[in-house]
């Protein structure tokens, strides 16, 4: 059966604080692409609709999440002092902070996006599973997450925003994110 692949573009900003000497310690941004490949767990019944699910059905929730929550989010290490700054000075922006345990690298983002997609597919009882997610940070750099996440990838920040089938991008208390 054919795999289904779709792509979404988004803009983002981040900074990495673990390596203070890195040029990535200064907030900066990228225009990125996320490519998702899905595979059905059941066969197409030919002669009718000739698909397991429509493109609209498959990508609607995912594209909504990328467009509404990921696009123009500021990705930060949960320990970054900028999180407290936003809480004190611009609390209305807290829902736009995508927070990670550790630095928000492209590798971390790819794993987080994959887990979020898995949460959506599970919540929808979809006949599809993700067999590849490619996060293209620049035209020359990409991170590829294959068909199975490792136990370490699944255990990192377990039961966080990335495992919920909603548009959340952090685990701040609802009162803080208002």
Which keywords apply here?
elongated; 178 residues; single chain; 6 strands; alpha/beta; six-stranded mixed β-sheet
Give the % helix: 25-40%
Reading the helices and strands in chain order gives EEHEHEHEEH
Let me know the largest β-sheet: 6 strands, mixed
- Low-pLDDT parts are none
Arithmetic mean pLDDT: 94
Could you characterize what this model shows?
- The chain has 178 residues and is of the alpha/beta class.
- 27% of the residues lie in helices and 28% in strands.
- It has helices at 55-70, 81-89, 106-123, 151-155, and strands at 4-14, 28-40, 73-77, 97-100, 128-138, 141-145.
- A 6-stranded mixed β-sheet has the order 4-3-1-2-5-6.
- Helix 2 (81-89) links the parallel strand 3 (73-77) and strand 4.
- The longest helix has 18 residues, at 106-123.
- The protein is elongated, with a radius of gyration of 17 Å.
- The N and C termini lie far apart (45 Å).
Task: Write a short abstract of this structure.
With 178 residues, the protein is of the alpha/beta class. The chain has helices spanning 55-70, 81-89, 106-123, 151-155; strands spanning 4-14, 28-40, 73-77, 97-100, 128-138, 141-145. Helix 2 links the parallel strand 3 and strand 4.
